[in-house]
Write a structure and sequence with these properties.
alpha/beta, 34% helix, three-stranded parallel sheet, two-stranded parallel sheet
Length: 182
Amino acid sequence: MSVHVWVTGFGPFPGCEVNPTDHLVKALKKEINSIDQTKGRNDDLASGYSIKGCFVFETSASGSKAKLETIFKLARETAIEAKRSGKESLPISVLFLHLGVHIEAKVQKLESSAYNEASFRVPDEQGLQLSKARILKQNDFGHSLTTSIPVKDICHALVEDGYHCMVSADPGRYICNWVYYL
């Protein structure tokens, strides 16, 4: 099985003028490009896993939605091409790893859920400040999505390796939740 990984982060927002996810995603992209140039591939992280793209979103509803739609299209096209070429083992799964920041958190949080609610405590980078708005109009307000990824197991393994993290079911209602729900 092949797993295509797409990694995203965010730029600054009010209260977080330097977003660490911006730096993490850019550093990862630089590392992946270096691996691609020296070895011709970037699947050394784990067998079958390959990072296909790293992107930093503007911290805004419309900016992140537009970029996410582009990435979804690119992910579909990449998976279709990989299947056609026969260069990767089937089936091909696609994993979107969205990195966000909670400026008051003391530990890393692995989010397990997202909600069909946008209630921005501060305006986004384009000045939009939504309150009790649906992200997707076709779904009920407050509807939740839960990942199928075993975040509890991942968190447990990280803690055993000395990392400080926890599973969270509350990504807030700002742009991280917005992107996760889309």
